[in-house]
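TODO from last week: model Phosphoglycerate mutase family protein.
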Amino acid sequence: MKQLELYFVRHGETLFNTMDKLQGWADSPLTDNGIQIAKLTGQGLSDTSFQSVYSSDMKRAMDTANFIISANKSFTGDLKKSAHFREAFFGGFEGLDNQTTWKSIATPYGATNQTEMLEQVTPGTVRDRMHAADPLHLAETGTEFWQRIDQGLTNLLVQEPDHARILIVAHGTLIRSLAIRFSDNRFDPIHEFPQNGSITKFSINANKTKILDYNLTN
């Protein structure tokens, strides 16, 4: 059975990150610090061989991936872009204040923020709650979110060779949601959000996905 090792990296710090704004399918550029973070992650992975490098099709992820590729000593291929690894879509909440928005979504459920909801329900249910609260009803539902990501993972298993090590530059909520879904007692992704430039590793085959490391930083 084909087995892959996936290195998920969260993109470098962006302008919206510094403003604590919701940033899903909306995009903002890497800051100078974000570029430095991407370069440091690249240095940390410079001796790691990858058979393929993917990123979401958001510019912040593609830019981060290209900095990592530039520092790698063995990778000579091209960056592969995939909308399957985009961040969650926050719909009408895109670009709004993070803390204020999540408080408004969580309050009807007896919580004050996203983390408190995740202590009680799955990431998919949180996506459903955001969709229900979105005045435009554009935010992704849990089903839409997971179908998109699962299709991306299935594509990797079909397209990539057995025992390939693959780098995927993606986003915080996506990586955290995967970590919660496949969590074990070694990690606490509910209370620990992936840092910019951090690395989270999974092994995956057709029957099982296992988390190997979470939120590793330089």
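Done. The longest strand covers residues 209-216.
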